[in-house]
Structure formats: structure tokens, C-alpha cells
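Weekly puzzle thread! Below is a chain. First person to post its structure in C-alpha cell form gets bragging rights.
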Amino acid sequence: MMAPAPAWQENAPALQVNRLSIGKIGGASLVNGLSLAVDNGEILGIVGESGSGKSLTALAIGGLLPETLAVTGGAISVAGQDVGALSAGARRRLGGSRIGFVFQDPLSSFNPVRRIGTALVESAMHHQGLSASAARTLASARLGAMHLPDPDQLIDCYPHQLSGGQRQRVMIALALLNDPPLLIADEPTTALDATVQRAILALLRAQSAARATILITHDLGVAISLCDRIAVMHRGGIVETGAARQVLEAPQMAYTQQLVAARRAIGQRRDRQSA
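Winning reply:
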């Protein structure tokens, strides 16, 4: 007998994480007692230095932790459903249907020997039950919504035939294809030039009204320009959270103050070099 469908609650917060801990199997803990929540229509930025646990937290939310790591404590709730209580099959269906992911390196995220449209078409067929023809029509429309040129032709291109900015837009189209209530974007503008970066951030902002969004970034300028709230991570925990401008313009905790001071110092150095 097929297991009953998860009891998603459309009026519940898109995401609630309560005292989440992540550790190596038989080893040290890497994330310790982390709690956060994201409401529909809100963009939460998670900032902090490399190794602070930002990406691990995102992977745990989507059930994508590597085999050497595991959730060792706490609970994750998506649309009111305890993710830990789901069957293995339901957890696999979580990605794409309820959670969309935008990874920082779309070139390595796409299969280099498959056309980019393949991933979109298969996702729409699997999660929405569409025919191949209807799924292709939807995929092309979503590529067009990302302001990509000639989507009906681009859908048959291979990843290496697209620019970095185009691949990132395709990744966003894939993440949003099935209208998930939660979008997680992990360093989505890494290695992109300033003009393309602004375009990608504008797309994320335009799509945010219909869902909850988590933006993981080390760039405080990106965070303050896009996010409603910010959570600052350090050594596997959140040390400060609040409205984006409040946290980054008037930080209360010593670690956040150090981050902001480092950003200002880098900005001043760049100004001197360009003078």
C-alpha cells in the first residue's frame, strides 16, 4: 500500500528549524542547536565566514547531506510537515516540489553530456505528472521568464554552450519550475561579474513574493541589498539575527562587528587601488 501524502499546511511558515545539530558520523559536531524560521514572501540572508556551517544547514534542510554527515538533533519543518518524519521516498520528492535549490556552480551541477532542457523536462514530468510535450512547453516558458534569449532553441543546448550568467538563470528556472514554497540560493552570484550579478539578484527579488527564500552568501553588500532579515553564523551557530540593515549597519555582537569592519576595510582598499 502506498504511504499517505505528507500533510503540507499551506498556511504554516514555509520553514522552521528548531535546535538543529549536524555532525560527522562518530565524530565532531559541525552545527550546534541552530534555530531559524522563514515566512512566505520573506528573504532571509545567512552570512558568515567559510566553514561556519551555512551550506551544511541548507543541505540538511533539503535532505542532501553527504553520507559522512547526519542530523544529530533538532527538527526541520517545511510547510508544517516534520521532515524527519517523512519516508525516504517523500524526502527525495521534497527537493524540486517543496524546496528549490540554486547552487553556486551551475556548470558542475548540470550533467555536461545532457542538454539543459532534459533536467527541466524530467523534473516537470516527475513532480507535476506532465507529458513530455507539456513539460517541454513549461520548461521553455520558465527559461523565457528568466530573460534568456530564444528559449525554444536554448533548451537544447549543452551547459558548456552557455555563459556563466545564462547557466545560473537556467539553474533558477529549474529551481522554480514546480513553484516550490521555499527557495534556497547558495552563493548564487559567485564568480559572476557585477552586471550579471545585479541581474541575477533582481531575478531572485522578483520571484520572492510568492515564496520564502534563503540566500546564503559571504558578500554583505549582496545581503543588505536583497534580504529582509539576516542571520549571522559563526562556528556552527547563529550569533546574531534581525532586520538586514539593523544587523549590518548597527551590529550588536562582536563577531558581526568584525565582519562589517572587514568589509569596510576591503572596500576602502579597493577605493585606494582604483583612485
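Puzzle host: Confirmed. Bonus trivia for everyone else. The CA atoms of residues 165 and 196 lie 6 Å apart.
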